[in-house]
């Protein structure tokens, strides 16, 4: 059965013809407009006859059903847990800011990349999400955000977007073309899949590229981000250089600051040496607590010192204040936990190796709020 947002326009026309029967041609346009421009579910499309609304709901149901929702930061951060086919569980996080709202969505249920500090990585891979499932998370956020407007979409939720390239790109095209979001407000965050970055460089849409770097020497990055053993820094940075040249978009590097691991003066110097030639902006994110990682995030004074080191070395850096930590909605914490795990009880930083856990994003505009250090910062 087709799901609501997996259909492209010809697919919707075919479905209406096969499952509903003769309709005036303008009905297809009404349904499409209702789904994408107005972000309405069929039952809410009151400009359609009631029988058509009911039939649409039967033949093209949503792919995801809401399992639970947790709210933090006085209502400014909302984490949603979704269930999809095959008992897939994914999470999305909606963040409200004064000027706009941002939604961070998942591209896979689980993740195969195995970054040890990340709750999603700790849980392993379940399956890829379809383009429709990715779009559906965005459209649900658009409805949930009203009367605010969702202006930015970041693929920094669960999963490695470039490991699910075709479906992710179909989703981005749909968001750009049919929903009307500018490609410049769409961000893909990758842990460093070089072939995917090179494919992105050949696409017409200039989406933002964020690379979850976390270490600027292979010896350390091999440990933090296992994909580095296949695509070491030299190869990754060459792909970043080419992407920047091809798209003219500023890159950003994500750096989860881990106490005593990648927050030293040496680390700042090495990071500056790779960021400066690329003109990359650095987003610093004190590591969020996950039960399966035995170290903890860098303390605030050291975070500030690291940021100032970068500034002094000529790199623009933003320190992000974590949002949603107490509902496990912050960067690296998304775990598609069962509702019982969405408790609002504060967690202690750190944990024991082997504890159950899960989450992504060392990504960019994760559930965080920027604290500005430099004269120039990224918009998210
Ligand atoms: S940080 Fe991203 S790429 Fe690494 S395991 Fe987590 S979700 Fe996967």
Number of strands: 13
Mean pLDDT: 85
Number of domains: 2
Overall geometry: elongated
Class of secondary structure makeup: alpha/beta
CATH fold descriptor of the largest domain: TIM Barrel
Gyration radius, in Å = 21 Å
**Small molecules bound in the structure, each named once:** iron/sulfur cluster
The spatial strand order of the largest sheet comes to 1-2-3-4-7-8-9-10-11-12-13
Strand residue content: 15-25%
Query: What is the CATH class name of the largest domain?
Result: Alpha Beta
**Fraction of helical residues:** 25-40%
Main sheet characteristics: 11 strands, mixed
**Contiguous uncertain segments of 5+ residues:** 338-380
Total helices: the number is 11
Descriptive keywords:
380 residues, TIM Barrel, 2 domains, eleven-stranded mixed β-sheet, two-stranded antiparallel ribbon, 13 strands, 20% strand, disordered C terminus
């Amino acid at each position: 059965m087709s799901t609501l947002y997996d259909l492209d326009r010809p697919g919707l026309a075919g479905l209406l013809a096969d499952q509903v029967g003769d309709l005036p041609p303008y009905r297809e346009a009404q349904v499409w407009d209702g789904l994408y421009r107005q972000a309405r579910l069929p039952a809410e499309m009151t400009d359609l006859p009631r029988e058509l609304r009911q039939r649409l709901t039967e033949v093209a149901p949503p792919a995801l059903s809401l399992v639970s929702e947790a709210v933090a930061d006085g209502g400014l951060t909302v984490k949603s847990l979704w269930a999809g086919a095959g008992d897939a569980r994914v999470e999305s996080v909606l963040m409200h800011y004064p000027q706009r709202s941002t939604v961070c969505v998942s591209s896979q249920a689980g993740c195969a990349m195995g970054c040890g500090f990340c709750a999603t990585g700790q849980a392993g891979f379940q399956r890829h999400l379809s383009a429709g499932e990715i779009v559906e998370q965005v459209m649900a956020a658009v409805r949930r955000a009203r009367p605010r407007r969702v202006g930015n979409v970041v693929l920094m939720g669960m999963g490695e977007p470039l490991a699910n390239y075709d479906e992710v790109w179909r989703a981005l095209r749909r968001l750009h073309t049919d929903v009307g979001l500018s490609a410049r407000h769409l961000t893909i965050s990758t842990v460093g899949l070089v072939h995917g970055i090179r494919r992105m460089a050949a696409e017409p849409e200039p989406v933002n590229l964020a690379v979850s770097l976390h270490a600027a020497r292979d010896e350390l990055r091999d440990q933090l981000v296992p994909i580095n053993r296949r695509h070491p820094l030299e190869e990754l940075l060459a792909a970043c250089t080419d992407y920047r040249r091809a798209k003219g978009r500023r890159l950003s590097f994500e750096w989860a600051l881990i106490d005593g691991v990648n927050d030293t003066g040496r680390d700042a110097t090495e990071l500056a040496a790779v960021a400066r030639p690329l003109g990359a902006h650095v987003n610093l994110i004190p590591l969020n607590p996950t039960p399966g990682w035995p170290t903890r995030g860098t303390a605030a004074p050291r975070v500030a010192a690291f940021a100032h080191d970068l500034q002094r070395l000529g790199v623009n850096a933003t320190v992000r204040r974590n949002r949603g930590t107490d509902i496990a909605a912050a960067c690296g914490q998304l775990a598609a936990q069962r509702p019982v795990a969405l408790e609002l009880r504060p967690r202690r930083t750190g944990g024991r190796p082997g504890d159950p856990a899960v989450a992504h994003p060392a990504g960019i505009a994760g559930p965080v709020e920027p604290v500005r250090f430099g004269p120039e910062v990224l918009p998210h």
